[in-house]
C-alpha cells in the first residue's frame, strides 16, 4: 500500500495507523495495567519524536519500509504463538495479577487448562500452559518471600511449602508433555526447577533416615488437600514426590546427554535471601541439591538416582505401594553405575 502511494502525507497517515495498530497489539499481549500504560506512554512519545526528527518520513521509503515489514512479521509471529499457547486465554483474577494470591489462582487455572488440553490431544498448548503454571507459582513464591522480608500485609498463602509442592507437581506433570513436543530447553530448565521445588517441600530434605520420623509425626492426623485438590498434602506425598523427581531428573540426564545439564552458575537450593522473580527464576533454573554440591555432572546423575532408590527403599519399609518405583530407581542406578 505504501509503495503504491507516493504522497508523503498519505504515507505518514498510513504509518501512523500502522503504529497505532502495533501498540494495540502489544497492549493485548500484556496483563498488567502498569505495563500497558508504559507501552502507550513510550509509544506515543516515540511517535512524536520520530515525526519531529524526520525519522517517520524515512520509515515510509527504502530501508524504513523493510524495517516496518520485519516488525509486522515479528508481531504476527508473536500473535500466532499466543494463539497456539492458549485459545481459551485466562484472565487474571481481579483483572490484574498484582498479588501473590492472584498469581496462585492464575497458575492453578492454567494447570487445569493444560490438563484439559492434554486430554484433547493438544500437546503443544498443554506444554506451554504447564510452563505458565510453573512461572506463576514461582512468582507467587517470590512475592511471598519478598513480602515476608519487607513485613508487608500483601495477601498471600500462609505457607510456601504447598506452593513449592505445587511447582514440583505441575512441572513433573508437564515435563513428559514437553518431551513429547521436543521442547529441549524447557525440559532442561524445568527439570532443575522441579528438583529444587520438590526438595524445598520435602520434610526430610532428601535424607532417608528421617523418613520414618516424618511419617510418624503425622500418624493419627488428617492432612489437608494440596492446592489443586488432587490429594492429601501429607509428608508421605511430599517425600514420594521428592524421590520421584530425583528419579525423573536422573533419567533425563541419562536419556538426553546432549542437553546442557550443568548448572552455571550453580545455585545451592535453599541458599540466599528473597529476590525478584527474574532472579528467582534464574536461580531455580540452575538449582543444585546440597548433597550434589561440587559434583561433576556424571556424579550428580548417580547421586540423584542413588538418593531416589534409598528414599523409595525406606518408603517401602514404612508404607506399601512404592515397590515399582523402587525397582525402577534401582534399575536406573544400576545402569548408571555399570
Describe this structure in words.
Keywords: Membrane, Transmembrane, Transmembrane helix. Helices cover 68% and strands 1% of the residues. The chain has 338 residues and is mainly α. The protein folds into 2 domains: 8-84, no CATH class; 93-337, no CATH class. A two-stranded parallel ribbon has the order 1-2. Helix 11 links the parallel strand 1 (267-268) and strand 2. 35% of the residues are buried. The model is unreliable at 1-5, 86-97 and 154-158 (pLDDT under 50).
Write the layout of secondary structure elements.
Elements: H1 8-29, H2 33-53, H3 55-58, H4 63-85, H5 100-119, H6 123-150, H7 160-180, H8 184-201, H9 211-217, H10 235-255, E1 267-268, H11 277-285, E2 287-288, H12 297-318, H13 323-337
Parallel strand pairs: 1-2
Helix pairs in contact: 1-2, 1-4, 5-6, 6-7, 7-8, 7-10, 8-10, 10-12, 10-13, 12-13
Short description:
The protein is mainly alpha-helical and 338 residues long. Helix content is 68%, strand content 1%. It has two domains: 8-84, no CATH class; 93-337, no CATH class.
- The order of strands across the largest sheet is 1-2
Can you tell me the number of structural domains?
Answer: 2
| Number of alpha- plus pi-helical segments | 13
Mean pLDDT: 82
Largest sheet: 2 strands, parallel
N- to C-terminal distance = 67 Å
Form type:
elongated
Strand content: under 5%
> H/E order of the elements?
HHHHHHHHHHEHEHH
SS-derived structural category: mainly alpha
Poorly predicted tracts of residues: 1-5, 86-97, 154-158
Number of β-strand runs: 2
The residue fraction in helices comes out at: 55-70%
Q: Indicate the radius of gyration in whole angstroms.
A: 24 Å
Keywords: Membrane, Transmembrane, Transmembrane helix
Protein name: DUF4129 domain-containing protein
Transmembrane segments: 12-30, 37-57, 63-80
Organism: Promicromonospora aerolata
